[in-house]
Design goal:
Elements: E1 2-5, E2 8-11, H1 22-26, E3 29-37, E4 40-41, H2 44-57, H3 66-79, E5 85-92, E6 109-115, H4 121-126, E7 128-134, H5 149-160, E8 165-170, E9 173-177, E10 181-186, E11 189-192, H6 203-214, E12 219-221, H7 226-230, E13 234-239, E14 243-250, E15 253-254, H8 262-285
Parallel strand pairs: 7-8, 7-14, 11-12
Antiparallel strand pairs: 1-2, 1-6, 3-4, 3-5, 5-6, 8-9, 10-11, 10-13, 13-14, 14-15
Helix pairs in contact: 2-3
The structure holds N-(5'-phosphopyridoxyl)-D-alanine.
N-(5'-phosphopyridoxyl)-D-alanine binds near residues 179, 204, 239 and 241.
Length: about 290
Amino acid sequence: MKVLVNDEIIERNEAKVDIEDRGYQFGDGVYEVVNIYEGIPFTLNEHIARLYRSASEIGIKLSEQPAQLCNRLLELIKCNNMTNGGLYLQISRGVTNRTHQYEQTLTPQLVAYPLPYKSVQDAQAKGVEAITAEDMRWLRCDIKSLNLLYNILVKQKASEAGAFESILIRDGIVTEGSSSNIFIVKEGVLKTHPANNLILNGITRTKLLEIMDVNSWEYKLEPFQKEELMEADEVFLTSTTSEVMPIIKIDSVTFSGAQPGPFTRKFQTAFSEAVKAETKTTTEKA
Ligand code: PDD
């Protein structure tokens, strides 16, 4: 496997990280996960725009233009002959003596590499289970920071309970999943938490809302309580790796007869059509 380290594409076993990298010591950096369909990175520009926004929000200045970075990522995909799978990329603030405060002159460190294809088709067809957990993260969840300690702890809790995801609740309100955005459907109307500091504004979420707009399907960007979640007709999550994933059980409550509901199915189909359309247009342009 070939990986990108700063401006070099090298073999995975030649890649080295400095022990004084602040990403390693403090989780001081930002990241993205991009899905690749038939060799095409889906919504790459949107992911890179969010990466630059996250970096800027924590004061990491990137000298390279987003388009240049995109080109190097495309080269990495080509070098690895990737068809389906993902791309992980992270940028840390840089390497320096370990102190909490930092100099403004550090050189950000970039690492990017392929993630193997993992099929989610079976889970998408059957739906998955989730548990609820308290949202105890910091208040800048809009930044896709390397610091995922609380997210991994609640994901592990879900996994140990035989569930796929932990749905996070802050002050009684459903914010998002440990690594996904959460949607409910009640009487045909979709609802999800507005994009503010309490959630990561998912690229999949944004894409789905664009699809909703194009089709004039009704939705509300409104915070909702845990009780509303538990009384919903349908619940699903979105993320790069899961796309549109039905949730059929939360804690001990089942939804739409423990099967993916009709609205969720409709959104799944519309989303995969959008993926097909975008990857087809990109191939034609190439
Ligand atoms: N997670 N919320 C959180 C906290 C996330 O970590 C993610 C993505 C999302 C969904 O965002 P998107 O649709 O852009 O993937 C929402 C990635 C996939 C991860 O950490 O692996």
